[in-house]
Amino acid sequence: MTTTALFTDKYELTMLAAALRDGTAHRRTAFEVFARRLPDGRRYGVVAGTERFVEALQRFTFDEETLATLDFLDPATREYLADYRFSGDIDGYPEGSLYFPGSPVLSVCGTFAECVILETLALSVFNHDSAIASAAARMVSAAQGRQLIEMGSRRAHEEAAVAAARAAYLTGFAGTSNLEAQRRYGVPALGTSAHAFTLLHTTADGPDELAAFRAQVDALGVGTTLLVDTYDITAGVANAVAAAGPELGAVRIDSGDLGVLVRQVRDQLDGLGATGTRIVVSSDLDEYAIAELRGYPVDSYGVGTSVVTGSGAPTAGMVYKLVEVDGIPVAKRSSHKESHGGSKRTLRLAKPTGTIVEEVVHPADSPPPVPDGLVGQSVAVAIVRAGDVVADFDLAAARRRVADGLTSLPWDGLKLSRGEPAIPTRMVSVAP
Amino acid sequence: MTTTALFTDKYELTMLAAALRDGTAHRRTAFEVFARRLPDGRRYGVVAGTERFVEALQRFTFDEETLATLDFLDPATREYLADYRFSGDIDGYPEGSLYFPGSPVLSVCGTFAECVILETLALSVFNHDSAIASAAARMVSAAQGRQLIEMGSRRAHEEAAVAAARAAYLTGFAGTSNLEAQRRYGVPALGTSAHAFTLLHTTADGPDELAAFRAQVDALGVGTTLLVDTYDITAGVANAVAAAGPELGAVRIDSGDLGVLVRQVRDQLDGLGATGTRIVVSSDLDEYAIAELRGYPVDSYGVGTSVVTGSGAPTAGMVYKLVEVDGIPVAKRSSHKESHGGSKRTLRLAKPTGTIVEEVVHPADSPPPVPDGLVGQSVAVAIVRAGDVVADFDLAAARRRVADGLTSLPWDGLKLSRGEPAIPTRMVSVAP
């Protein structure tokens, strides 16, 4: 499917039909994407999905085949959709930016008709990608500079896995196991072998780990990573060095008490002269397990399930809300689902040292003054103007933005334990 | 992208390269998909993804453009992949079947080369779809026959959302908000309007809910569902009946203390003569909230986040393991990652009443005898033979299978609370 138009909830099109019929469809509106809160106990979120959303927006068109599936719509609505092309403006946080509760991550302005039907697509992309990036950034922070490899494709929907690999890379992971993420986004693909390869080298005489390792080294060179825990790890390490010599690239351990095993394996490798051989660990790692292993000689972490499922928070919980109609702020009046009317932008306040102190969300056309002694940075950038993409997207720049963002947090913002958002969000109302 | 070949972890192709080089690639193997355990405290799982996997398998081919992205492979491996087409056999649990820890949900037999490279694709599909189906079935069970509508697309990756809508429908949901799921799988699409539509009808004089409702009824008829909680719910219900008359199809409540509100709204509707108007509730519902509302006059539940994220278990945690090489059972020896060698099938034992009592997993070629007084059913069916699909796929049949499966559980298997699997799994070894 080349069009993205059907990644849409039916009610968006029935609302469109009703609004076209009574003429309200053409009112000027502003919609905003934001999260009312961070997942339980998280201290910051990381915006991801902007580039994917803009790419999908350009394919959000209704061709004849697509319209043929929408037989519940009246002719006027179908006619509107046949000509649909988003012609409004979009502003938003650059990918890799930190966000907090209430941060207007994306602002979409245009007629009600052209904006309302983007709800599901925008939220699907931002809720998924930002959930992954927000979890991944905690892992990057916990790894303190050690290498992280995303290898969770198998635990996620096959297309979500590709987006997850991109989101993890965006936050600072070194690469992914996923080949489509390499093809589509240039994320470095990494990986060598699994237990199946060792088990394959079983004959009527029994297992033959050494034959498996020799075959792998023969095909992939001594720089490869040998998986040493299929049978006995000590024998595995001995076989690995026997097959590759002391120039062996790395060994991987995928089970057991990793801390203890890593020390044993390091000693064994060093004793065999393989002092440059790196140790890769995997096996249901999450940010807490990564942090626990700080004191052990781990060189690289393979992270699977936890990163692709957002480590307990598989969706960022962002919403897409109508905040302004013909210049009038609007908001639902509902307990626990508070929203603030009016189109908004963000001024992020920091100390001169760079440590951020407050997220000030203000009416789009009236930024508040920056208090003395603080530095204010406007967070949002122009992304689309009159339907044309005006932002540059650059995964390398997004990676630097995440790194800078983590550096800018107050010290307790990097704690893995549950707590309040790292900085407060202050909503500044429209001046009376 | 029409090929699915790159939904693959790099290490599968590097293992393939090494196995082609040492000749082991052509050994006859059996791989199995199974879950070592159910998500924490679940009592059963529901298999979903079989049809999607088989469809993706038919597009698992390496065209020139795809091969061009695999420059880390040697020429022999690329040549093998250029001609790749799965030519082995696949057996598995029909979609909608219940599964338990150790159930061999899918068995893939063929050469190592042709089987090993399917790992990520198979697991991505089964882990995602079965996670959703397993959560959705608990909601279906909790709803006790009341209508469930899946409306979580916005909280999931845009493609995962389509598969999630299919998986929820497969377990007994009435339909989905997702239009692509309707187009692709024929899942009924449902839905009417959101708060944005009511808010849109704001003018300089203030909000005008009645105008919004009149516009919706005018466009969609009195059978529509009006969302009554944008401002005051009592006023909303009054406006709804004023706009549509007592023949109004339904009202939706999306916030607040749903139990209390539903009773109030029912009384109000009945007092206004709208005795046939149904009440739809939504707002972060999960299986527990659905069960809590049993005593209240709810007609329909809109379920979002919880169903598309597997209600706390976003992946089914299934693995794809090599279990047999040239007729020799093989297994990794690792604590907590136990697996059982040899190709396996399942006999599910039930009482004559239909209540299941045990999952007997046995060597593929030697089913054990059925104990006196019990009925034995072989669970797996042939899916692919020599590369050709031989199974029929039918979403309606899968829905009946889930319903039958839930009926077959022992009474405590339907409890929502945490507990042991509803029936034990017994692994029968190869006869000595």
Automatic annotation (TrEMBL), chains A, B:
Q: What is its EC number?
A: 6.3.4.21
Query: Nicotinate phosphoribosyltransferase N-terminal domain: from which residue to which, for each copy?
Result: 6-126
Q: Where is the Nicotinate/nicotinamide phosphoribosyltransferase domain?
A: 147-337
Q: Its biological function? A: Catalyzes the first step in the biosynthesis of NAD from nicotinic acid, the ATP-dependent synthesis of beta-nicotinate D-ribonucleotide from nicotinate and 5-phospho-D-ribose 1-phosphate.
Q: Spell out the post-translational modification annotation for this entry.
A: Transiently phosphorylated on a His residue during the reaction cycle. Phosphorylation strongly increases the affinity for substrates and increases the rate of nicotinate D-ribonucleotide production. Dephosphorylation regenerates the low-affinity form of the enzyme, leading to product release.
NCBIfam families attached to this UniProt entry: NAPRTase_put, PRK09243.1-5, PRK12484.1
- Asked whether the keyword Ligase is assigned, the reply is yes
Keywords (alphabetical) are: Glycosyltransferase, Ligase, Phosphoprotein, Pyridine nucleotide biosynthesis, Transferase
UniProt cross-references to PANTHER family, sorted A to Z:
NICOTINATE PHOSPHORIBOSYLTRANSFERASE, NICOTINATE PHOSPHORIBOSYLTRANSFERASE PNCB1
Name the pathway: Cofactor biosynthesis; NAD(+) biosynthesis; nicotinate D-ribonucleotide from nicotinate: step 1/1
Question: Any stretches that span the bilayer, and where are they?
Answer: none
Q: Which GO terms describe its molecular function?
A: glycosyltransferase activity; nicotinate phosphoribosyltransferase activity
The family note in this entry says: Belongs to the NAPRTase family.
Catalytic activity line of the entry: 5-phospho-alpha-D-ribose 1-diphosphate + nicotinate + ATP + H2O = nicotinate beta-D-ribonucleotide + ADP + phosphate + diphosphate
| Name of the protein | Nicotinate phosphoribosyltransferase
